[in-house]
Sequence to fold (1079 residues):
Amino acid sequence: MSVPIERPGKKNPQLRTPVPTLPPVPRSRAALGLTAAAAEGRFMLQHCGECGAVQYPPRDACGKCLSGDLRWQDTDPNGQVIAESTVRVSTAPYFRERGDWRIGTVRLAVGVSVMAYLHGDVEQAGPVRMTARLDRAGQGVLVAMPPRATPNMEDDKILREMTCDPRHRRVLITDARAPDALALAKAFLDAGATKVFMGESEQWRGHAERAALSALEGVEILPLDVTDTRSVQELAGQIGGKTDILVNNARFIRPGGLFARGDVTFARDEMEVNYFGLMRLAQVFGPAMAGRGADGVNNAVAWVNLLSVHALSNLPQIGPFAASQAAALSLSQALRAEVHGGGLRVMNVFSGPTEDAWHQPLPPPKVQPKALARAVISGLRGGLEEVAVGDVAKDMLARWREDPKVLEYELTRMGGGDA
Amino acid sequence: MAGRRKRQGYDGVVLAAPAGMAYERFSTKTAHWWIAGALRNSLKAAGLTPGDVDGFSVTSFSLGPDSAVGLTQHLGLTPRWLDHIPMGGAAGLVGLRRAARAVQAGDADVVACVAGDANHVDSFRRSLSGFSRFAQDASYPYGAGGPNSCFALLTDHYMTAHGAQREDFGRICVSQRDNALRNPNALMKTPLTMEQYMNARMISDPIALFDCVMPCAGSEAFLVMREEDAQAQGIPFARLTGAIERHNAFPEDPIQDRGGWAMDVDELYQMAGTRPEQIDLLQTYDDYPVICVMQIEDLGFCGKGEGPEFLRAHDLTIKGDFPHNTSGGQLSGGQPGAAGGFIGIVEAIRQVTGQAGPTQVAGAKQAMVSGFGMINYDRGLCTGAAILTGEGA
Amino acid sequence: MTEDAQGATAMLADLATALVSGDVDVVDLTHTLDPDFPVIVLPPEFGQCARFRMEEISAYDHRGPAWKWHNFTCSEHTGTHFDAPSHWISGRDVPNGAVDEIAPERFVGPVCVIDCSEGAAADEDFELTPQVILDWEATHGRIPKDSWVLMRTDWSRRRGEAYLNMKDDGPHSPGPVPAAVELLVHERGIRGFGTETVGTDAGQGSHYTPPYPAHHILHGAGRYGLQCLANLDLLPPRGAMLLAAPLKIRNGTGSPLRVLALVPRAG
Fold:
């Protein structure tokens, strides 16, 4: 079993906050396939499209038959440790600062050997379940896990570095008014967050969940309006230095297609909240959090954007809204690049129709706030970058991966022709 | 393909003029400077001038952005045969084989084989991070332990598979230190006891401090030429009686437990017309002791997995019954980058030509040299070995 | 120069003297434009009144080394603001119904203040009825034609949620009943009507017939509205002069503005 991480005490204000360092960043283009798999929490390796041989390390041509047709596929994660070591001396400052690292050679059932990190609970020469994870540099690495859950396994030192577990961390949820706010706050508290700050816009008008939110121990409601630059700056001035996880759930959505609306009023509101809001948050909270990427056990680790899956491909019925989501998605990539040096993870959670007033006439399935909150927590625990929540989003993401152009036709033409 | 042909012999080809530069832990000098120095010393030993060199073979990790081509102009050479061998610890053997064929075929009369590397502060870290694509993608990100970690895994596996103890590896390190104390150019100048070896701090378990070489700057060189030319010039020489190389052997092995030598060793002995027990001294590539053990096994001195027992039964020092890495090797002499793969050849030439001085093994007429290089990912890919004979001391 | 003109010149000179001497006070009836100042909230499926927002363009820095300035955005109906007749459907065909078309002399005029502060303190849905107006006139005389009438409730002192006072059945704040607006517009011929609340109508004004009577009747008759006023307690019941000039926005239905009153010094 892993030793549980103690809740950290207050920070010594006389000590310099450690400057974040990163594990090695460079990878070949082929190896980024592992990063992409890890971003979704999938264990994938290259398989030869012609002879089926599984490849590792990632290649540009099959090591068996020279075919160039190598495809990343979900792969049997079972394997056995055949050698292990503990790296005590490293050339990279990132590793030196963090002490010893357990690594091993694992023979996978699919017949390749891989070098991997070993979870502390993996038995010597024991069986493992291989996972692909993003390290602090946001690059894909292999972490061998015990085949079954062990007590406190999430607190393992290596795993804590790879994940963004809310335990012992302080969270900012940017919109207390959002339909998912209460579910998110509860989920973070249940996950062991020490504090949940809730941003509340327009405190001159109440909202339904305020009383329930206020009643939660660990929740603190603070003024924040993502459309107001000054408000964002003021809140960052207060809590920018102790926000370890930021969840941007602020969202403006109205139904209506491009022509049905006939104006840009709602579109401006959508951009103001969904795009400029993210930008305002990013510009002040981003640097503050990235600077605390190595700040102890409760370092700043993650930035979560809740997005519509139509950020990937437009749905004309909510065309202008989807455009604002696409803008936010694009900006999230810029943010990811900007905070990379701080080791901060930017996780985008894509959902289909959510259970709220704006999707009320739509038939199920719709994403319940609790389901969304669960997906956020499990995504953070997995250290993911891309999460699809709900069947609609999963389906859409799968179609998008298969062929974005075909998905565009499905979404923009199939609904418009003869029944 | 059915029935591969046997390698042909190297009749009439000799190795001569072993030379080097005394190593330095850190140096501000460049690889060009180190290579020039070793070449100069080698030519001086042979009584030749740069103009006599018409074949040039270069090995270096730190020559960038230059290659052997740039060096010809830099050093004022006009060779009619040129080679650049990026094979690390096997480069000496591979370069030797190619040079021998060139001389045998008349493409060159005198090939200077030179290896040298600079070692600036931080150059080790830089060379690790960009060592190879597979290392960059699949080993360096796991703790950035570099070769220490890779060999730690091989060592751990070897120990488990064959029941080896740390003391077994310690015998190699301790006896090499003993040899190094006779070599005035070795970087390590103090004795090493088994107790010190066992108590050393762990670097990457089970590899501890004295299992690791010390990177340094340095260079080594020798000449490959026709026997008749060497005789005419009065240059002491060693004959090349057999040589093999192999790359990416046994790719299906889950982890490296043997090297390419095992594929070719029988032919090596056939070429040279000799047997393991007739070898007077062995120079293995010793970046880590586990690799020395694999070489002892794969080159036929004992069976697979019998290495530990073999080590317990033999004395590996200069005066011992199995003289091994007589100059102290890399473990006690220092690892001058790619020139580390030349140490065994240069020392073997010295030994069989009776020029080894304080490290001379009495009656050394037949030496085996082995090379090993390039942990591209999880295992060393390049192996080579050669047998040299001479008149001895 | 005619005699009238000479008189007017003297009068302005006297006013200037009085302004300098303090015999006439200039009272600011305006709230600060601030991102946190409430705006009217409509059901969310309707377009909303934009909140005041300000973005720094530069502040003597790399974005502009010697100067500081902002871009701001807001609705025509954000903060203390003016409603033109074209704001309401009933006033859409009124001549000169947009802010840029209104003659400038309409922006300066006499003002009467009906003090409903006690009633509003007691009842957040306090109604300005014809009787309240008649009672006021019994004390202060008939409301002069073409004057502004402001309803004082001291609502401007409310902060935060108490200002809109939103409940599950909508906002609750004082305002006029339809008959009172009819009386002011059609019988007294006022120029416009102003309040301290977020609108000229009561919070529950949608339940009258017609809904939102102040907007409906005022603008239908080509009259103006002022809302989100402050400091009405500093004005006398009558005798002050109101200066309320909206921005000259083409086809604008209203505008944030600085509302000032010239007030004879008390005593």
Notes: The two ends of chain B are 45 Å apart (CA to CA). Chains B and C do not touch (no CB pair under 8 Å).
